[in-house]
Design goal:
The protein contains six helices and ten strands; from the N terminus they run βββββββββαβααααα. It has 200 residues and is of the alpha+beta class. The strands form two sheets. A six-stranded antiparallel sheet has the order 1-2-9-4-7-10. Strands 3-8-6-5 form a four-stranded mixed sheet, with no helix packed on it. Helix 5 crosses helix 6. The radius of gyration is 18 Å and the shape is globular.
Length: 200
């Protein structure tokens, strides 16, 4: 299996995307599994010619020469999940920073997140454009294509308090803050805070 990680080259994308990787697995490669642990990141992962099977927080990717793309939204903030690869695989995965993906979505995150691993079709042209992406052979062409595509979808997510609250949470990981403290500091109710977190 070959994995190449990249940081966004475009400075605008650097605000929203932590990194992304291109993964290829050759036909006949041994079955490979790894355990992923909960994190603050949200992932958008897209496969070419693959059949995916989701079981709770576990994901199986199997070779399937169907000339289609499959895209998943992964929000692994609750329990560990096992990912298994079998056969030839071509994949691109984007690690969005907390609240980062929200600035590219037409609707709130909850609209797309049905479970911790959900089918993801954010735009009408997404599958067609990703099929074009997977036909590219040159790495720099892939990077430019991917970054230009996501830049074309940028909307900016402006929220009255979630960015501030998230920054406080990330600073205080060693001594977690209480929901009541966060709500009081931002002059909102705990109910409002919980609802907005669930939504976005």
């Amino acid at each position: 299996m070959n994995i190449k990680f990249f940081k966004p080259q475009n400075p605008v994308l650097q605000k929203y995307i932590d990194c992304y990787y291109f993964l290829t697995n050759k036909a006949g490669a041994k079955k490979l599994s790894y355990l992923g642990f909960p994190s603050h990141n949200i992932y958008v992962t897209t496969f070419a010619n693959a059949k995916t099977k989701v079981n709770g927080s576990n994901l199986a990717i199997k070779e399937n020469q169907n000339n289609k793309v499959t895209s998943l939204l992964i929000v692994d903030d609750e329990i560990p999940g096992l990912t298994t690869y079998q056969g030839s695989t071509t994949e691109v995965t984007i690690y969005f920073k907390p609240l980062g993906l929200n600035s590219f979505l037409e609707k709130n995150l909850l609209h797309y997140k049905k479970t911790c691993i959900s089918k993801f079709l954010p735009y009408n042209d997404y599958n067609e454009r990703m099929q074009q992406f997977f036909k590219l052979k040159n790495t720099q062409q892939k990077i430019s294509f991917l970054e230009n595509y996501w830049l074309s979808k940028l909307k900016i997510f402006d929220h009255p308090f979630l960015h501030t609250i998230l920054a406080d949470i990330l600073k205080a990981e060693e001594a977690p803050l209480k929901t009541s403290e966060l709500a009081k500091k931002n002059n909102i109710s705990r109910t409002t805070l919980n609802r907005q977190f669930a939504l976005h």
